[in-house]
């Protein structure tokens, strides 16, 4: 029994075998590559979706925090007005005025430091006057709260204007409001 292979048949089978082997090798390399690529795309999509959710949640939290701070600020402002009325009714008790000025510092935290930067030699009474003027109180209301005459309030305002260096045309109340709004 002699087994003979025709050279043409051998050549065709060799080409088919090499082609099959080449396809197998390409499939062995390309299929896992494509699968990994699809998996990476899915993971990237999930990551993007989670980061979008995280950003939305973070934005909601910051908005809630802002609204809560605004509510607290409004409450402090109303408490500030109430404490002013109580101080005016009770003819200035020292603990109540301390509470009032601490509440004022909570609402306008940088007001005093800004004043001290502008006027380095400002006194504590002048700071109190500025705080009350910042609340748009009249000279009569300020005089009742500080237990001085309205003329004394006007003199103190005049001295404060000179210390700051305001011109006659400049308004002290607007100047103090601008100090407060630039630090908020």
Reconstruct the topology from this structure:
Layout: H1 7-89, H2 94-107, H3 111-118, H4 124-134, H5 139-146, H6 150-164, H7 172-183
Any overview of this molecule?
By secondary structure, the protein is an all-alpha fold. The chain has a domain at 57-183. The protein is 82% helix and 0% strand. The chain is built from 7 helices and no strands. It has helices spanning 7-89, 94-107, 111-118, 124-134, 139-146, 150-164, 172-183. The longest helix is centred in the N-terminal third of the chain and has 83 residues, at 7-89. The protein is rod-shaped. The relative contact order is 0.06. The model has no long low-confidence stretch (mean pLDDT 81).
Let me know the largest β-sheet. none
How would you describe the shape?
Answer: rod-shaped
What is the residue-mean pLDDT, rounded to a whole number? 81
Fraction of residues in helix: over 70%
Task: Report low-confidence residues grouped into runs of 5 or more.
Answer: none
């Amino acid at each position: 029994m002699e087994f003979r292979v025709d050279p043409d048949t051998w050549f065709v089978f060799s080409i088919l075998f090499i082609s099959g082997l080449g396809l197998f090798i390409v499939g062995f390399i390309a299929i896992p590559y494509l699968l990994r690529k699809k998996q990476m795309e899915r993971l990237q999509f999930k990551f993007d979706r989670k980061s979008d959710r995280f950003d939305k949640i973070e934005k909601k939290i910051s908005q809630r925090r802002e609204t809560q701070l605004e509510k607290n600020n409004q409450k402090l402002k109303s408490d500030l007005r109430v404490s002013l009325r109580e101080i005016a009714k009770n003819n200035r008790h020292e603990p109540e005025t301390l509470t009032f000025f601490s509440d004022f510092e909570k609402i306008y935290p940088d007001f005093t430091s800004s004043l001290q930067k502008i006027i380095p030699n400002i006194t504590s009474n002048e700071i109190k006057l500025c705080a009350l003027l910042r609340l748009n109180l009249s000279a009569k209301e300020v005089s009742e709260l500080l237990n001085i005459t309205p003329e004394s309030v006007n003199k103190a305002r005049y001295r404060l204007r000179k210390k700051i260096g305001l011109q006659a045309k400049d308004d002290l109340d607007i100047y103090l409001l601008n100090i407060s709004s630039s630090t908020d």
